[in-house]
Amino acid sequence: MALMARRLVQLYVGLALYGLGIALQVSSGLGNGPWDVLHEGLSRRLGLSIGAWVVIAGAVVMLAWIPLRQRPGIGTVSNALLIGVFADLFLWLLPAPEAAGARWAYLITAVLVGGFATGCYIGAGLGPGPRDGLMTGIAARGHSLRAVRTGIELTVLASGWLLGGTVGVGTVLYAVAIGPLTHVFLPALTIRPRTPEAVPETAPAETGPAAQAEPSRS
Asked: Once rounded to an integer, what is the mean pLDDT over residues 129-158?
């Protein structure tokens, strides 16, 4: 139970921080990540908030999981429902930066927070985000994960740009930095099953296959 509680706390902290990262990058006005270019473009053309479109797009992407036979976890559903809520909350709370230095500070902080947040929610091990699952589900059909990810994100980016989403140096910085940052943060934030408790010195050491059994997960 304690391990599951830790996973849930890390998951929801990660989702809240991811929403903060979206809000910071959108507020900077220097260019959004590919999916948020689409969310902002849809918001400008069709109304509703950016966060609302994050939720709607996540739900639509999860429908695409059905033919791919992907199985969502609690982390997947929470990701789809909550990141947009947190993004709207922080967009409302954050002051709009005016000076160039403040806008760059927002952007750099957004990318760093986004990398850390990604490590948090993936490391919790409670299911991938809707967009991550779409990419891995398609790749599992015999395609290169890198090619699938690039194809999806370029399509999303182009669609968002045509709808009026903000593309700029921040878009490039996010694309270049988010992978390496996740590579740094994810190993440190991955929650692994507990190891068996140490055997008391007075007990005989167990040998054979039973001694190598994997501990149960909480």
From this structure: 87
Alpha carbons 188 and 195: distance in angstroms, whole number: 17
- Whether pTM exceeds 0.70: yes
Query: Which of 37-41, 65-69, 170-174, 206-210 has the weakest average pLDDT?
Result: 206-210
- What tens digit of pLDDT does each residue of 70-90 get? 888 999 999 999 999 999 999
CB-CB contact of 79 with 130 (8 Å): yes
The answer to whether 206 and 25 have CB atoms below 8 angstroms apart is no
The pLDDT of residue 195: 60
Q: Could you tell me which of 108, 106, 56 has the C-alpha nearest to residue 84?
A: 56
d(CA 111, CA 24): 9
- Amino acid found at 188: A
- State the SS3 of the chain: CHHHHHHHHHHHHHHHHHHHHHHHHHHHCCCCCHHHHHHHHHHHHHCCCHHHHHHHHHHHHHHCHHHHCCCCCHHHHHHHHHHHHHHHHHHHHCCCCCCHHHHHHHHHHHHHHHHHHHHHHHHCCCCCCHHHHHHHHHHCCCCCHHHHHHHHHHHHHHHHHHHCCCCCHHHHHHHHHHHHHHHHHHHHHCCCCCCCCCCCCCCCCCCCHHHHCCCCCC
d(CA 159, CA 36): 11
